[in-house]
Design brief:
Strand content of chain A: 5-15%
Strand order of the largest sheet of chain B: 1-8-7-6-2-5
Number of helices of chain A: 5
Oligomer: heterodimer
Distance between the termini of chain B: 9 Å
Radius of gyration of chain B: 23 Å
CATH topology of chain A: 60s Ribosomal Protein L30, Chain: A
Largest sheet of chain A: 4 strands, mixed
Radius of gyration of chain A: 21 Å
Mean pLDDT of chain B: 93
Number of domains of chain A: 1
Order of helices and strands of chain A: HHEHEHEHE
CATH class of the largest domain in chain B: Mainly Beta
Low-confidence stretches of chain A: 1-26
Structural class of chain A: alpha+beta
Chain lengths: 168, 440
């Protein structure tokens, strides 16, 4: 699932680039000479450094998960955030937003507050690894933007999350 | 709103004798079997004239329908008419043919009169006790033709108040969030409507998530949370001008806005470095005052009707529970002691009860006293969340969410017996209803 969406994103980026390239000429191009060889587009060599695609391709995950009503960063989360901190260290010009989310089993206002806690917990851990906190903003979506749509333990576990997104 | 004059002088003052007034309905009766049988024939007009809202005889039919629907929706009445009921003459309005209405206990008559065009319409409203053949109340309303539904709600309010002994509530409005789109990318728009779902109007266009609206006590503005510019902030939207402003300038997220009963203050929650506390700010702006300071989540809040106390929720004990404090933040004490978690407390406008969301895996709408006693669960949906009080403190609206991929929410209503439950019709799905006070 993750790798499919990743390659779709890359394909999207290539399409966007070629669309831009086509806009460049102002005058209509001359008709191609009959002897011209077909021009092959350069193969994409990978995501642009510092981009969201580069981030997703480089880190072990863009998100960490939490237990019900909890916001502590466990060993697995620490490993994910270390990979994010490493990438941020290699891309010092990039800022990120951490989105805090909750499952649907909390009331709306409480979940906004809980999502803030989760986003800040992830932010604080990145800061403890040396990432300048001024590069990190947080936003809570509470239960407004679930990643998994079911109403079962598996879906809820995927929704209790903090997701790091590069600011482009 | 437009002018809305009650023309008491137009009618002879009627002095009801309590000894004769035997008809009544009991808002605490949950059997449903004693619903009062009340006839609501169409309101006649002396001479049909055309208004921008339709001809006066059409309005007479529509007003009677709204009266009947309001009374039915309260759960205390079994109304009949106006459909399938014989038309009455103007003469009957003040001289009912009681013998012909003997299968009913109460009888509503009235009339619609207008000079035509955009002139105001006059709506008369009369309530009779059929067995005693006596008049119980009469009222008259002068409204712009487009406000004909308000005359109907006022008439239903007069009937409800006269027969229940409770304060009226039909002539009031709801702010809520209209929802559409898939569960993972829900479009959430601020919208307003009458208490019965009519006169619906969208306010925001849905490009940013809108949450948790609250009408100001004078209906002039609405507090709500907007995700515009990808931040979580409270705006106050002025209904007259269509403009909005932030309630406070801060780099921190602000949410869960509430008005004080007099509209002078706004209670809100703000998260600083992940820790959420409750603050108060003047509705004219200025520096916010922090009211709570626990390391836990302190959120929401609702003033007592006299403005002296605030009920709010906090997880300082380890789980969401309900607390009461003085309006200045002093004397914070927990009032919820049953099993499960407690959320979204709202103080009744009557002062006698706190409505809240009880979390026991599922969400239930429940009430208890401000001392935390006599807890009663009123609903039984999968997720029934965030009750809001009717102006008379006898009815609650809330939103009911279904599980699974649809996850759709609808606005529902229940009375304090827990028996009379119904869905409020909205054009899309709906959540976060907030009931305003009785219209002036």
């Amino acid at each position: 699932m993750a790798s499919i969406s990743r390659s779709l994103l890359i394909a999207g980026a290539v399409i966007a680039l070629s669309a831009c390239a086509k806009k460049e000429p102002v005058a209509p191009p001359p008709p191609p000479p009959e002897t011209a060889q077909p021009v092959t587009a350069p193969e994409p060599t990978g995501p642009v450094k510092g981009s969201q695609e580069d981030f997703l391709a480089s880190v072990s995950s863009d998100r960490v998960f939490f237990d019900t009503d909890k916001y502590d960063i466990d060993m697995e989360d620490q490993s994910v955030l270390r990979s994010q901190a490493q990438w941020l260290g290699a891309n010092p010009g990039v800022s990120v937003t951490i989105e805090g989310h909750c499952d649907e089993r909390g009331t709306r206002d409480y979940n906004l507050a809980l999502g803030e806690r989760r986003a800040n917990a992830a932010k604080n851990y990145l800061a403890s690894l040396g990432v300048d906190p001024s590069r990190i903003t947080t936003i809570s979506y509470g239960k407004e933007r679930p990643a998994a749509m079911g109403s079962d333990e598996q879906a809820w576990a995927q929704n209790r999350r903090a997701v790091t997104v590069t600011v482009q | 709103m437009t002018r809305f004059a009650r023309i008491a002088a137009f009618f002879a003052l009627f002095l009801a004798s309590p000894a004769l007034a035997q008809l009544s309905v009991d808002v605490t009766d949950d059997s449903g079997s004693s619903n009062l049988k009340i006839a609501v024939p169409a309101l006649p007009t002396s001479q049909p004239v055309i208004t921008p809202a339709g001809s006066t005889d059409e309005l007479g039919q529509k007003i009677a329908q709204v009266i009947a629907d309001d009374l039915r929706g309260s759960g205390l009445f079994s109304p009949s008419g106006p459909v399938g009921m014989r038309a009455i003459s103007m003469n009957e309005v003040t001289a009912p043919q009681f013998a012909g209405w003997s299968r009913f206990e109460a009888l509503v008559h009235g009339f619609v009169r207008s000079a035509g065009g955009a002139n105001d319409i006059t709506v008369g409203c009369y309530l009779y006790d059929v067995a005693l053949e006596t008049e119980l109340t009469r009222q008259g309303y002068v409204v712009a033709p487009r406000d004909w539904r308000r005359a109907a709600h006022k008439c239903a309010d007069a009937i409800y108040a006269r027969l229940s002994g409770e304060s009226p509530f039909f002539d009031s409005r709801i702010a809520y969030i209209a929802e559409s789109g898939p569960k993972g990318a829900r479009v959430k728009r601020l919208a307003i409507m009458d208490s019965d779902g009519a006169n619906h109007r969208f306010i925001t266009n849905g490009q940013s998530i809108a949450l948790t609206p609250r009408f100001s006590p004078d209906y002039g503005s609405i507090l709500y949370v907007s995700y515009i510019q990808k931040r979580v902030r409270i705006f106050v939207y002025n209904i007259g001008t269509g403009k909005q402003r932030l309630i406070t300038e801060s780099s921190n997220p602000t949410f869960a806005p509430r008005w004080s009963p007099d509209g002078r203050y706004i209670l809100f929650s703000m998260a600083i470095a992940g820790n959420t506390d409750i603050y108060r700010v003047s509705s004219n702006g200025g520096t916010p005052v922090r009211l709570t300071s626990s390391p836990g989540i302190d959120v929401g809040g609702s003033y007592s009707p006299d403005g002296s106390r605030i009920v709010f929720e906090s997880d300082r004990s380890g789980s969401q529970q309900i607390y009461v404090m003085n309006a200045d933040g002093s004397n914070q004490r927990r009032i919820s002691h049953g099993g499960g978690r407690y959320a979204t407390p709202e103080w009744s406008p009557r002062g006698d009860l706190i409505a809240f969301t009880k979390i026991v895996g599922e969400f239930k709408v429940a009430v208890m006293t401000p001392g935390g006693e006599n807890e009663r669960i009123l609903t039984n949906g999968w997720q029934d969340e965030a009750p809001t009080w009717s102006p008379n403190g006898r009815v609650l609206q809330f939103f009911r969410t279904s599980p699974g991929r649809s996850g759709a929410s609808q606005v529902w209503q229940v009375d304090l017996t827990g028996v009379n439950e119904r869905r409020i019709p909205t054009p899309l799905s709906g959540s976060d209803p907030a009931w305003g006070p009785l219209l002036p």
